[in-house]
Amino acid sequence: MRGVVLLMGLMVLAGAAWADAPSGRILTRTELDAEMTANRKLAGYIARNGYPDVAERQFLSDRPPWDEHEVTCYYLDRRKEISFARAWILGQPWIPLERYERELSDADIAALQPLVMREDAVPGDPVARAEAAAVRAEAAVQRIEVAAAATERAADRAEAIVAKMESMPERPAPRRRR
């Protein structure tokens, strides 16, 4: 029983950790400039706050009215993640919007640190990409280990509840009134 609960919990948490990991494509400064041309809300935010440390383009699986992708900006020193997308109206993606904003955790910052945009970075450098992928994988493993420990504690609690229920005396079924 405990093994099944633990296995199911680990599968759920591993899926959540995988889904939580950055899944888009990291943008270069030139690509981010092109996105800013298409989304004036993104352009205005960057004009006021400066270029992000890391920018990412992610596929949106949402249904309409959203455009097919969003641009997420990461400001590591401010511990901020902010995402921009466009909404469709009258058959065109006319409305630029801020989709969400959240605070970055220490693990998020550690995973994003190797991806920071540098002026001297060579786009598509395979060594830099491999190092960044290794850092992200290590951070994901750490998150899964923490989640596995929480799942094991939950399995222990569930097992204790089941044991308590099994040790309770059986009550007779209530009689029905006619």
Look at the helices and sheets and give the structural class.
alpha+beta
What integer is the average pLDDT? 78
What's the gyration radius in Å? 23 Å
Quick one: overall form? elongated
Strand tally: 5
Report the order of strands and helices: HEHHEEEEHH
Structure notes:
It is a single chain. By secondary structure, the chain is of the alpha+beta class. It has one domain (2-144). It is built from 5 helices and 5 strands, in the order αβααββββαα. A 5-stranded antiparallel sheet has the order 1-2-3-4-5, with helices on one face. Helix 2 crosses helix 3 and helix 4 runs antiparallel to helix 5 (126-167). It starts with a helix and ends in an 11-residue tail after the last helix.
Short description:
With 178 residues, this protein is an alpha+beta fold. The chain has 5 helices and 5 strands; from the N terminus they run αβααββββαα. The chain has one domain.
SSE layout and pairings?
Blueprint: H1 2-20, E1 25-26, H2 29-38, H3 40-49, E2 54-59, E3 66-75, E4 80-89, E5 92-103, H4 106-112, H5 126-167
Antiparallel strand pairs: 1-2, 2-3, 3-4, 4-5
What attributes does this structure have?
single chain; 178 residues; five-stranded antiparallel beta sheet; 5 strands; 49% helix
